Fold:
Amino acid sequence: MATAEIVPVRTRSDLREFIDLPWKIYGDNPYWVPPLKKEIRHLLDVKRHPFWRFSEQALFLARRGSEIVGRIAGIIDRNFNRYHAVGAGAWGFFECVDDQGVASGLFDSVETWACNHGMTELRGPFNPSTNYEIGLLVEGFDQPPAVMMTYNPPYYQRLVEGAGFRKEKDLVSFVGFRDGYNPPDWMLRMVERAMENGRIRIQPAERKKRREALALTRKLYDECWSKNWGYVPMTDEEFELTGKNLERIGEWDMFFFVYWDDEPVAFALMVPDINPLLKRFNGKIGLLGWLKYLLYRKEIQGVRGLLFGVKEQYRGRGVPFLALNHTIEILRRRGFSRIELGWNLEENEDINQLEEHLGGRIAKRYRVYRKWFADRW
Structure:
């Protein structure tokens, strides 16, 4: 088989080929959900998307003759590196035919680029950071991804590891179904005791108080996640854009806070899993988008638990049980048949065991890889 040439993306035509490649890779795969091309173009736009205000990017294509057979993005997230005091480059937006030579050529190009920018390691996949889509799917290929979660062919794991990358962290996703997603009696008793003392309450977010809700969410997000693996604070612009994007698909009664003695100590944000609609759109909404929404919105049967955070000092006081029990009540009231909670860190035994007690099961596993540049020689 002819060797592929690795070339940087320089023109609009190159970028279009970069964005279009997944349709060739996945073809009629029944589980892959096509992203909206307009959103991918915006996410990669270094002049418009706020992530690139503090980050650097290099896009590469693998060409074999006139055919595009692979793509990858090199990323340097300066905010992440400052926060963690590291010199890490990242790779993301990886798509490739089943050819180790092509994949290794793409990774080598990103490694060389990152090394020339002073980086000492390479991690990924991040599309483009932990605040967006991350991880390579390594288990759960026989089901579609939930909204804002990744999907890839099984052979990608072999290509990535064949290029010298090793596991840094596994992330897991739990799935629960309405009919089997029940809190055990001991949990219900704990919730009842917590509510009876009058010190704890649930407050739904309100659309008319949007800015206050987003500001409180950001505060709690930073407090709850700041010690977690991979955490990096969002900038004001990033958070505002993320909030607007979530409002487009989210519903306010699926977003709530938990208060203890009038202090906000936890929050949860769920969004309808709109991936069945995205599959119908096949990359662009077009003039028939609204009609497709009306025709196929009943196919939205699931929910993704996108964010769930509890301040550390309140995790042993029944707050997680109360929040998850309320989540189940919303699921049933709204008539959704399933919920996907994730991703969770594989070693987060508290939340993982709690979700198992509720009847959830690990349905998917995503892997983040790491490679020190010293490993190349």
